[in-house]
Amino acid sequence: MHFSLMKQKVTDEMREKVRKRAGHRCEYCLLPERDGLIKFHVEHIRSSKHGGSDDLENLAYACPDCNLFKGTDLGTILGEDETFTRFFNPRKDVWEEHFKVVDCTIYPNTEIGEATIKIFQVNKLERTELRQLFAEDGLYP
After folding, report:
1. What domain count does the chain have?
2. pLDDT in tens, 12-43
3. What is the pLDDT of residues 78-108, one digit of tens each?
4. Cα(31)–Cα(134) distance, rounded to whole angstroms?
5. Comparing C-alpha atoms, which of 57, 84, 93, 87 is closest to residue 72?
6. Is the residue at 141 inside a domain?
């Protein structure tokens, strides 16, 4: 196999840089990483199958749910006109411009926020309940 086609490994050093940059929170739903209860993922904003790299600018810190619901998708179809809308990109977008939190439920401010909420399923009951537990301890948002 040609070397440039081989997948690079995200090193422990890179993982720690991504983790610190994210403030030890999921960059999509803002769930805090706490006491190793949930092992967070370093995920590719643009997956390798879509031409994404292992560069720090293409990596985000994500809770397992956000990462698994996102998968390798880049966006989704919204509305009756079937417009493709990309997901929130934590390297290019400002979270507060696309989302707001009310009582631990995340609401969209934009179509990008709507697309992200739809596919990442951030408002499933068990996810809002988990955020509520963190909020009670003053850790969310």
Report:
1. 1
2. 999 999 999 999 999 999 999 987 678 999 99
3. 999 999 999 999 999 999 999 999 999 999 9
4. 8
5. 87
6. no
Amino acid at 133: L
Q: Can you give the C-alpha Rg of the chain in angstroms?
A: 15
Nearest of 23, 27, 25 to residue 44 by alpha carbon: 27
Question: Residue 119 is part of which domain span?
Answer: 3-136
Token pair listed for 114: 């709507």
Band (1; pLDDT cuts 50, 70, 90): very low
CA 77 – CA 73 distance, rounded (Å): 11
Q: Is the pTM of this model over 0.85?
A: yes
Cα separation values, 59 from 67, 106, 140, Å = 11, 22, 23
Rounded Cα distance between 18 and 16, Å, is 5
Cα 63 to chain center, whole Å?
7
